[in-house]
Specification:
Elements: E1 2-8, E2 11-23, E3 26-34, H1 40-51, H2 59-62, E4 64-70, H3 72-84, H4 86-89, H5 95-113, H6 118-125, H7 134-138, H8 145-157, H9 159-170, H10 178-181, E5 187-198, E6 221-229, E7 235-242, H11 263-274, E8 278-282, H12 290-300, E9 303-307, H13 310-319, E10 332-335, E11 345-350, H14 352-382, H15 389-400, E12 409-414, E13 417-422, H16 424-431, E14 436-441, H17 450-458, H18 461-471, H19 485-508, H20 535-543, H21 555-563, E15 566-572, E16 575-583, H22 588-596
Parallel strand pairs: 5-8, 8-9
Antiparallel strand pairs: 1-2, 2-3, 4-15, 5-6, 6-7, 9-14, 10-11, 11-14, 12-13, 15-16
């Protein structure tokens, strides 16, 4: 560490505290602090202290750290935003909009490092209540509450433009999946699924009671659909619907309600916005149903990849196209059933691990239901006069459907009497289909192999992972406190952009996390069976150490460690008004983090 004076033409020279470090055979310098504004005697004292010379006052009295703000995690997120190009997408050219753009960037960063309400964000920017260097790093000061909501409105007005740019980047010709490279130019294999989140209050026009994925029937909710690129799971677009919407079938335009009758027009909007000549939609069995295919997807010229429901699989077995002997020597077989599914390919799969899990779960649920029924039967036996058939029916209804096992029991119920037994025939019939699922697709075989179709459907797990991240402790999309529908949409879109940044950070930092970081080395006997972790990942998870011997951390712990790279406001008494900013020395983990992100280490401006 040393003091260097850098000439600055006709202006006074810049006085910098620097240190040198070696990378291979090259020696580099980095700036730790700019002390140009300090009086010359203080600069001289700092120089003597750096050289190891003794000074009259103790070090504790010579220096005072006025404030230490966590900075490393802010710098890492901002650097990733710039590297991915998202920073450029939320920039504004007009001067009157630049402040709103800066606040939006700060909102995205804060959603990753400290998710919370907009009031908590506003306090995080206030110098008196700041908990990080966010305001300084984003160059915004004295932000009013109304400016935060104005920035949300600014972001919502640009959602369509940002999503179009993301689609061009991740669904364009430079990042096509294996399927897209083999097919016509301008096509894309996209993943789509929907989820819901509850709202606080009842003033929002989008807030409706419906089927709650959060299991919060006491709260109104919204429904939103997420569109991701099938190649790597990168989020591209998100759409918000009212809470009881049953028509959230496709993310197409950020300002148009998705109605089944207007899907054809919306597909044309998709082609116009995202410049995609051919789209293959991948959705689960609850999203892409036979009715949706017949009424919407076929007329719109949209191909699909989905899965059959359990009753449909049973019908195939009963009709003959699906024979269980197909899985005697293999776990994947392509069948056809033109009578039931004309113009579609059916790919039957059997996963033995899934079969074992379903059998174990069914056995546990049957035993739990049996225990509940025994308690009801014992109560009826002790007091038969109090238990009429209606009373017994109410009690049974309260327990029999708890585990959804009513179909597997035969009940004999009347006044003062109850008996039950398992329906072994139905249980055995269901057990024969354990581990079997059937993929359905309209894409011809010469354009998409059976293995590729199964892999595409399994990639829906990437969308589910996105929902878990946005709804969990990482980004906290819920609870939602906004009253205006457009503000709710802007909030959800903001969370998607935060996930976009976190997605790229997690992928780059995988060697330091417990996640899989060597997917090319994973062993997989078949596309049907789950892929096993690579040997390097197993060793990392077992030893809690990476290949270079450093500790492996969970994502929240890594962010917390990055935060210890602080920006320190240092003063030299007795002239306490003169201060300079000093950055803490990065640890080995922090240096590795910025190296994996391909970002320079933070420095004082």
């Amino acid at each position: 560490m040393f003091i260097e004076r850098v000439p600055n033409r006709t202006s006074p020279p810049a006085i910098l505290i620097r240190e040198s470090f070696r990378e291979g055979t090259k020696v580099h310098k980095r700036t730790l602090a700019n002390i140009s504004k300090l009086p010359e005697p203080m600069v001289a004292a700092i120089g003597q202290l750096i050289k190891g010379a003794e000074i009259a006052a103790p070090v504790a009295d010579a220096f005072q750290i006025r404030r230490a703000l966590p900075h490393g995690h802010v710098a890492a997120v901002l650097g990733t935003m710039r590297k991915t190009g998202l920073d450029a997408l939320v920039k504004a050219r007009p001067k009157d909009e630049q402040r709103s753009a800066a606040i939006v960037r700060a909102l995205i960063v804060n959603r990753i490092i400290a998710p919370g309400s907009k009031l908590a964000f506003w306090r995080a920017l206030d110098p008196t209540t700041a908990t990080s260097s966010l305001a300084k790093a984003c160059e915004i000061e004295d932000v009013a509450e109304r400016e935060v909501y104005a920035a949300l409105d600014w972001l919502f007005d640009r959602q369509s433009r940002i999503e179009t740019a993301l689609a061009k980047k991740h669904l364009g010709s430079k990042c096509l999946s294996d399927f897209d490279k083999q097919n016509q130019k301008g096509g894309a294999l996209v993943l789509y699924d929907v989820s819901s989140s509850y709202l606080e209050g009842r003033c929002c026009e989008l807030a409706q009671h419906g089927y709650s994925c959060d299991h919060r029937r006491d709260r109104p909710q919204i429904v939103y659909g997420l569109l991701c690129a099938a190649a790597d799971g990168t989020p591209v677009a998100i759409e918000v619907f009212d809470g009881n919407s049953q028509n959230a079938c496709l993310v197409l335009t950020s300002k148009t309600r998705a109605d089944p009758k207007t899907l054809t027009a919306q597909v044309e909007t998709l082609n116009r916005r995202f410049k995609l000549a051919h789209v293959v939609l991948v959705g689960d069995r609850g999203m892409i149903t036979s009715a949706r295919i017949a009424e919407d997807l076929k007329p719109a010229g949209l191909d699909w990849i989905s899965c059959l429901k359990a009753p449909q699989i049973r019908d195939l077995v009963a009709a003959g196209p699906l024979q269980l002997s197909l899985f005697d020597e293999r776990d994947l077989a392509e069948i056809s059933a033109p009578e039931h599914f004309p113009g579609e390919r059916l790919i039957a799969c059997r996963n033995p691990l899934l079969a074992e899990e379903r059998a174990r779960k069914r056995s546990a649920l049957l035993e739990a239901t049996e225990r509940n029924l025994k308690r009801v039967a014992e109560a009826v036996r002790r007091a038969p006069k109090k238990h009429t058939a209606a009373v017994v029916g109410l009690k049974i209804g309260a327990v029999i459907d708890k585990h959804k096992m009513a179909k597997h029991f035969v009940l004999d119920m009347r006044d003062g009497y109850l008996s039950f037994r398992r329906d072994d025939e139905k249980i055995a019939a269901e057990a024969t289909l354990d581990g079997i699922y059937v993929i359905r697709t309209s894409v011809p075989k010469d354009r998409l192999s059976a293995e590729a179709a199964v892999g595409a459907y399994k990639s829906l797990a990437q969308v589910e992972r996105a929902f878990r991240t946005m709804k969990g402790v990482d980004l906290q999309i819920r609870p939602i406190h906004h009253w205006l529908g457009d503000r709710v949409r802007a909030h959800v879109f903001l969370c998607m952009l935060a996930y976009y940044v976190e997605f790229h950070m997690r992928r780059a930092l995988a060697p330091m996390l417990f996640a899989e970081h060597a997917p090319e080395a994973r062993e997989r006997k078949s596309i049907v069976t789950p892929a096993e972790a690579s040997p390097a990942t197993i060793a990392k998870r077992t030893q809690r150490r990476s290949a270079d011997g450093q500790a492996v951390l969970a994502w929240p712990d890594l962010l917390a460690h990055l935060a210890t790279l602080t920006l320190n406001e240092v003063a030299l008494p007795p002239h306490g008004t003169a201060t300079f900013t000093l950055l803490a020395r990065p640890t080995a983990i922090q240096e590795k983090t910025f190296a994996l992100l391909d970002l320079p280490l933070p420095r004082v401006q």
